[in-house]
Amino acid sequence: MLWKRLKGVPAIKRLVLIGFSGSGKTTVGKLLAQTTSLPLYSIDQMVEDKAGISIPEIFERYGEEYFRQLESGIIKEVVEKGEGIIDCGGGVVERESNMQLLKSFGEIVWLKCPLETLLSRLEKNDRPLLKNKDILYIQEFFGRREVLYQRYGDITVNSDRDLPRIIAELLEILNLD
Ligand SMILES: Nc1ncnc2c1ncn2[C@@H]1O[C@H](COP(=O)(O)OP(=O)(O)OP(=O)(O)O)[C@@H](O)[C@H]1O
Ligand SMILES: O=C(O)C1=C[C@@H](O)[C@@H](O)[C@H](O)C1
Ligand SMILES: [Mg+2]
């Protein structure tokens, strides 16, 4: 065991991961769920399961607003669950109502990562809001999103590092065993 549980301090067992596409929410969520045995709720995956088509297809056929409605509907269902890790889509912060619900569920962790790293991770980019966009557009979009992640995150974790270090920091913050 790399981390040590602090005795007498309650563990955080309701966690919400937010951050830009490529910040590692899904990757970190899976690893953290495996390590802690907490259930993982991946909102993007649940939206795709509900719609029966991929996210790029949802955007293409029905548009962003329809995707956002599905996303908000799944969030309403998931916050009714008990303990667990919620892996959000990158745009969850676009709706204040999503964030109120998620705040009532648990601790919101912003996986913060510089744009340069995100872009290298998203080289094979299929995210509809970023696909085929020029760098100036992406920089401006990233800047607007950072303001929102900063606003809603209770805890900020640097995700511009290797995965074991991110997981170790999260386990320490959450005081999980
Ligand atoms: N700490 C890391 N170091 C190196 N590569 C990483 C790290 N975290 C994630 N990645 C890689 O970056 C890519 C994007 O990661 P991931 O899908 O987890 O991001 P995300 O935040 O869930 O994005 P989205 O909001 O689009 O769902 C994946 O290929 C993943 O393997
Ligand atoms: O940043 C966004 O708005 C998105 C991020 C992805 O996780 C998906 O939820 C979808 O591609 C929208
Ligand atoms: Mg993801």
From TrEMBL:
Cofactor(s), by name: Mg(2+)
- Give UniProt keywords alphabetically: Amino-acid biosynthesis, Aromatic amino acid biosynthesis, ATP-binding, Cytoplasm, Kinase, Magnesium, Metal-binding, Nucleotide-binding, Transferase
**Pathway info:** Metabolic intermediate biosynthesis; chorismate biosynthesis; chorismate from D-erythrose 4-phosphate and phosphoenolpyruvate: step 5/7
- Tell me which EC number(s) this protein carries: 2.7.1.71
Assigned GO CC terms: cytosol
List positions binding Mg(2+).
Answer: 26
Explain how, and how many, cofactor molecules are bound: Binds 1 Mg(2+) ion per subunit.
Q: Which Pfam families match?
A: SKI (PF01202)
Q: Tell me where in or outside the cell this protein is found.
A: Cytoplasm
Binding positions (substrate): 44, 68, 90, 145
Molecular function as annotated in GO: ATP binding; magnesium ion binding; shikimate kinase activity
Q: What class of enzyme is it?
A: transferase
- Reactions accelerated catalytically: shikimate + ATP = 3-phosphoshikimate + ADP + H(+)
Q: Which domain of life is it from?
A: Bacteria
Coarse class of the primary localization is: cytoplasm
Q: Which SUPFAM superfamilies match?
A: P-loop containing nucleoside triphosphate hydrolases
**Example GO biological process term?**
chorismate biosynthetic process
Q: Which family does it belong to?
A: Belongs to the shikimate kinase family.
Summarize subunit and interaction data from the UniProt record for this chain: Monomer.
Cited PANTHER family = SHIKIMATE KINASE, SHIKIMATE KINASE 1, CHLOROPLASTIC
Protein's job: Catalyzes the specific phosphorylation of the 3-hydroxyl group of shikimic acid using ATP as a cosubstrate.
Write the protein's name.
Shikimate kinase
- What is the species listed in this Swiss-Prot or TrEMBL entry? Anaerobranca gottschalkii DSM 13577
